[in-house]
Amino acid sequence: MPLLAALHNFAYWLTQDREEAEDLVQETYLKALNGFSSFQPGTNLRAWMYRILRNNFLTSRTGLSAKMTVPLDPEEDAALLPVTADTPESLLFARADRQAVQDALEKLALPFREVILLCDMEEMRYQEIAGTLAIPIGTVMSRLSRARRMMRELLAART
Amino acid sequence: MSCDWARKLDQYVDAELPDSELPDMEAHLRTCPACASGALSRLQAKRLTQAAGRRYSPSPEFRMKVERSLASARLPHWARRWLPALAAAAALLVILSGAAIWLQHARGEQALGELADLHIATLASPNPVDVPSSDRHTVKPWFQGKLPFSFNLPDLETSQFRLIGGRLTYFQQNPGAQLLLESGKHRISVFIFQNRAGISQLNSGSALRNKLAFHSESWTEGGLWYFVVGDAGASDIHGLSELLRSAAGS
Predict the structure, then answer these.
(1) Is B41 within 8 Å of chain A by CB?
(2) Domain of A112?
(3) How many structural domains compose chain B?
(4) Within this chain, do residues B48 and B128 fall inside the same structural domain, yes or no?
(5) Do residues B241 and B226 touch, judged by C-beta distance below 8 A?
(6) Lowest-confidence pick of A19-23, A40-44, B166-170, B222-226
(7) How many helices (H) and strands (E) does chain B have?
(8) Domain containing A143 — which CATH number?
(9) What is the model's pLDDT at position B93?
(10) Which of A82, A121, A152 has the CB atom closest to B54's CB atom?
(11) ipTM, interface predicted TM-score of the complex
(12) How confident is the model over A137-159, as pLDDT tens digits?
């Protein structure tokens, strides 16, 4: 069950708790099995499974609490600001180790953590991410841009 | 970095830039050091996030628990209406098989990305080759005793390619040969490894073409796995690959 490992990893990043992540994944599989008639042939199966997992999470206690504590900034206003390439910030990832990046990911607010993980770790297309998170592609791009900027800021704060 | 292309570097690195804009972006990257550096640092960040994100693994006990719960969830359906349950189970198998193929593809692309990194690191090194020579009869014997295999090099005299030299390299704990060549001002690396499990499952990564303006080609022949990568055009990479293939077959 190879998708199990990927879903479990993503669930753990969402919940930050092993037991909660395992419950979430198990519930996701059961819902997928019972609700397979709702899947539309020709659409993206992987995104469908991730969407079930994420919806389950958002209705869980941890998910509800994460939603309550996220500042709702106007993301589109901060969209796609260019990054200065030749400043020391651009060297942060070259110097950062895996642990530093994991610490920074943990500190990201949920909407930014999930979008950067789906794009960079799961290598989903923008369209696939938009379908999984139920947001427009423009929001995917602006949220991703902000998430990457936050990662650079968090890594810079360590040095 | 104030040019308009800088705003599209994220899309470029995520392979989301429209095909119609790719040639202009790649031409721009060749002339704008700031954007080229920006693209490279974004790619580094993406790779590091990808590696750091794969952090948590399910325990074998949890895997069994999920399998058991799925089996028991299916049983009542089987008893009541066996046909829909069979369809659902088959569909889930399709999901899982698709995911297996996708994961294998993702791992393959990551490994090919590492080889592209090796090529970039070689170009950045002040001593890119261990044996600097344009003579294939000097470069090939240099690997004797250093590698558990031998390979043939084509005669490049009448071709557009020039051999710069060779170096010993390692990929996934396997020793191999890295040959550096040039075609005009473009540098090309040829990696040769024994065709072992893992390596043989890799194929030429189309994603590389979009992400770094690199072209690549790979194949297996005579128990060896070849991987050619460089910023030269796709036809040049293919031409060099054909020369190597004909030499290997001779």
Answers:
(1) yes
(2) 74-159
(3) 3
(4) no
(5) yes
(6) A40-44
(7) 8, 6
(8) 1.10.10.10
(9) 79
(10) A121
(11) 0.83
(12) 999 999 999 999 899 888 888 76
